[in-house]
Specification:
6 strands
């Protein structure tokens, strides 16, 4: 599967709004994870299991054959730099940077509560009961892909800013990103935005023959 996408889209935002305010006696922290290669059938199964709406169903994502695609654990996730991803230490380190203190200065109660909250998030479906703040529907997503492909066919030189590359094979690859936002009630602490990028392969015939 090619790593060069034809289209790159942010398709969903999940928010983890923490109730834990770190006590001591706005830009984002962006974390980009290593791309996950998927077929369009598997991507639809994971994120659009019931039809048009973007849904993260733990009964689907936590199956043994799917857990590696949506897990937040270091066993399955690496950063775009190739390092194992550690959600707990990533968020804690960002908080330390924003407050200009070490976690040793957090009150014991706030640190324990935040630790419990972050370490309980092992999968996308664990983010506040898989709360989706905003998302593109499946039919809308397919329509976007088809429109971009048609623009490329009729005018290969006039690519829109969504289009990066079109391979010579039988597939069209799209980078589809699920964003997870970890936000604190403390306004000094910048949100940590986790970008999970899925490189999804669509057969060209599938895109061409869509009725959307």
């Amino acid at each position: 599967m090619s790593s060069n996408p034809f289209v790159s889209l942010d398709i969903a935002v999940l928010k983890q709004n923490s109730d834990v305010e770190i006590e001591i006696n706005t830009d984002n922290h962006e974390v980009i994870l290593e791309k996950v290669n998927l077929t369009h059938e598997k991507f639809q199964e994971l994120f659009y299991p019931s039809g048009d709406n973007f849904i993260i169903d733990p009964q689907v994502t936590k199956r043994s054959d799917n857990i590696q695609y949506t897990s937040l654990r270091p066993l399955y996730r690496r950063t775009d730099k190739g390092y194992p991803f550690d959600l707990y230490n990533t968020v804690l380190s960002n908080i330390e940077d924003d407050l200009n203190v070490t976690r040793n200065m957090f009150t014991g109660d706030s640190l324990v509560t935040l630790t419990k909250e972050l370490t309980s998030l092992e999968d996308l479906s664990d983010v506040h009961s898989y709360c989706v703040d905003n998302a593109i529907g499946w039919k809308n997503l397919l329509s976007i892909l088809q429109n971009e492909y048609n623009k490329y066919i009729y005018n290969p030189e006039g690519l829109s800013k969504l289009v990066f590359n079109v391979g010579n094979g039988d597939s069209v690859n799209a980078d589809l990103t699920v964003n997870v936002v970890f936000r604190s009630p403390n306004m000094i602490i910048k949100p940590t935005v986790l970008r999970m990028i899925y490189n999804v392969s669509f057969p060209k015939d599938y895109i061409v023959n869509l009725s959307v």
